[in-house]
Specification:
Length: about 600
């Protein structure tokens, strides 16, 4: 049999075995069940001889009474074994994937943001949902099925040799030729079905894209073009499927011809022995039954290699993640965090997402306790990157960020982040109630505090207008929430957290001019006494800032108060002019262009 089992046990596979080892009690029991199944299958073939020879040939009445009982007992044993094995193996398999999933989720949520940028969300999800299943399939179906099949094969071969060793040797030489095509056909089917799966995945993402973007498809009159593209992809899928079925349809008949020829040979030789009186009909049919029963387990064994290769590949993907170290490292002996308000210092900071491509260079900046720092600059200048360094979403490449003089890498990440509230550019809400979304991270807040935060963020009235109020689940609202409403909820969340350091990254970009004025007032309250970093989409947001830095090309190019920066006539002046002179219509968006989403 050309079974290419390439299993090299690397350390990570040993780790997988570690997961399996925890269930060894159940595994052992399952193994016993498998031996029972294998034994009773072989016994089925074995009893053919006494049934035929003693009952049918010799007409032995005692045997006539005995054999039906034996047969029933064999089948009951087999049934019990099958039940135990099936249940126990899936129990073990499911508990392994449960552990793997827990560990994966644990690991992934702890990893740094850089990790999430490198990997697509869909890919990460498929690790947790798909890959662990493939591993389970390998552990509980393939490997254990294989064990049972091996036991069965050993038992049946035992029967074959016991009944007629000469014929057995002949069969051992002839039969592999019949079994070889199973392997070969399987290989081809796999190749085509992989391609057809890929082509289905392609079709899926095409559907997702064109349905989600249907507005654009219609607006640009691209329906015929998309229909054509769909038909092309559909046709490709059709072709692979047809190829798969051509091989599938051929495999059984070919198998039967080959198997039939083999059986014919055995009949000829075995029958010769019976006629010559060297053997009995019972002996011969017992032999034949064992040979026939061999077919199933051998066929399954040929598929084993595939399942193991797939499982090992999935295990590799899963362990790749489990073994990833977070780039944001916890200090061994964290320094105690000082009391607020906090001073934040950037000391000669450089930062790069990709090595060799710095997006921030030589940043020196000291933000005093309670100071309100405005940050302005053209898009892509590095503003978001700069403030991302404060909660250690990323670590600096060079230099240091300090909180009250302590390098933030010497503080416990948890302590550091507990002092910072963030409102991001894209409002992020979870599919939970509005109440829980606002209380996210402040679970011990009272109802009263929650409502106060909602009021201060000017979202209270909106929430009151909903029939279920704070208990409204975000998902139920579907697309009804406007960008401004979402953003005000995020502001309420930041308000409730009541942290001494505040980061507002274009937090008012999704608001219209009127709502912005309201939120601006809320933010004024929020920023009082806190060290605040306010990235401004509209410069009107930071006119009152204590100080404004202008960031361009990863550097601080200007620094000062609004008036002095304006009169300096530099970068800020240009930004300001572009914004206010270009405003022809009052749609609340500068340049007349809506904010461009940076998501790809
Ligand atoms: N996750 C990331 N990986 C690689 N490059 C990034 C990432 N995020 C931002 N950048 C790049 O860093 C630069 C600064 O981006 P950003 O800090 O978002 O600018 P701003 O907030 O001023 O618009 C841009 O050139 C941007 O393309
Ligand atoms: Mg930004």
């Amino acid at each position: 049999m050309s079974l290419k089992l390439k299993i090299e046990l690397r350390p990570r596979h040993k780790r997988l075995l570690g997961y399996i080892r925890e269930s060894r009690g159940r595994l052992l029991l399952a193994m016993v069940c498998m031996i029972v199944v294998a034994g009773s299958t072989s016994a089925t073939a074995f009893v053919v001889k006494p049934v035929l020879d003693d009952i049918f040939m010799k007409k032995n009445e005692q045997m006539l009474l005995l054999m039906p009982f034996v047969v029933v007992i064999i089948y009951v044993l087999r049934a019990a074994g099958m039940y135990g094995q099936e249940f126990l193996m899936h129990y073990v398999g499911e508990s392994i994937i449960r552990q793997l999933r827990d560990n994966l989720y644990d690991r992934i949520t702890e990893l740094s943001l850089a990790f999430f940028h490198d990997k697509k969300t869909g890919v990460l999800m498929s690790r947790i949902t798909n890959d662990v299943n493939i591993i389970k399939n390998m552990v509980s179906t393939a490997v254990t099925g294989a064990l049972r099949d091996c036991f069965t094969i050993i038992g049946l071969i035992g029967v074959i040799f016991y009944r007629d060793w000469k014929l057995a040797i002949i069969a051992m030489i002839v039969l592999p030729f019949a079994f070889f095509p199973i392997y070969e056909f399987g290989r081809r089917i796999r190749r085509f079905s992989t391609r057809s799966q890929e082509s289905m995945a392609d079709l899926n993402s095409f559907l997702h894209e064109t349905f989600a973007g249907n507005k654009i498809v219609k607006a640009f009159g691209m329906e015929p073009w998309e229909k054509n593209r769909f038909m092309e992809k559909n046709k490709r899928y059709f072709r692979y499927e047809v190829k798969t079925y051509r091989v599938k349809a051929l495999s059984s008949p070919v198998m039967e011809i080959l198997g039939g020829t083999g059986v014919a040979l055995i009949i000829w030789y075995g029958g010769y022995g019976v006629i010559n009186g060297q053997s009995t009909p019972g002996n011969f049919f017992s032999f034949m039954t064992a040979v026939m029963l061999l077919y199933g387990p051998v066929k399954k064994l040929t598929r084993l290699n595939n399942a193991i290769q797939r499982g090992m590949a999935a295990a590799d993907r899963v362990f790749d993640i489990l073994e990833t170290e977070s780039e944001v490292v916890e200090p061994e002996n964290p320094a105690p965090i000082p009391d607020p308000p906090h001073r934040i210092t950037f000391e000669n900071v450089s930062f790069a997402y990709q090595p060799g491509e710095p997006v921030l260079r030589g940043i020196n900046l000291e933000v005093y306790p309670g100071e309100r720092l405005g940050i302005a600059g053209t898009s892509g200048g590095g503003k978001t990157s700069l403030v991302s360094l404060i909660p250690r979403f990323y670590d600096v490449t060079e230099g240091a960020v300090r909180l009250d003089g302590i390098d933030i890498r010497d503080l416990a990440v948890k302590d550091l982040r507990s002092r910072i509230a963030v409102v991001t550019q894209e409002p992020i809400l979870f599919n939970d109630t509005i109440g829980s979304n606002i209380a996210y991270g402040s679970t011990d807040a009272t109802q009263e505090q929650l409502l106060d935060a909602a009021r201060a963020a000017y979202i209270y009235e909106f929430i009151q207008s909903l029939p279920k109020g704070l208990d409204t689940v975000i998902g139920e609202l579907g697309n009804r929430l406007s960008g401004g409403e979402k953003q005000r909820m995020c502001i309420a969340r930041a308000l409730l957290k009541d942290a001494p350091i505040l980061i507002l990254d274009e937090a008012t970009s999704a608001l219209d001019a009127q709502a912005e004025q309201l939120v601006q007032k809320a933010l004024e309250n929020l920023m009082k006494g806190r060290t605040s970093f306010v990235i401004a989409h509209r410069l009107s947001t930071i006119i009152d800032a204590d100080r404004i830095v202008v960031i361009s090309g990863g550097k601080i190019v200007e620094e000062g108060r609004h008036e002095s920066l304006l009169s300096a006539g530099g970068e800020y002046y240009k930004l300001y002019n572009r914004q206010f002179s270009g405003r022809s219509s009052e749609n609340g968006r500068e340049n007349g262009f809506p904010e461009q989403s940076k998501k790809q």
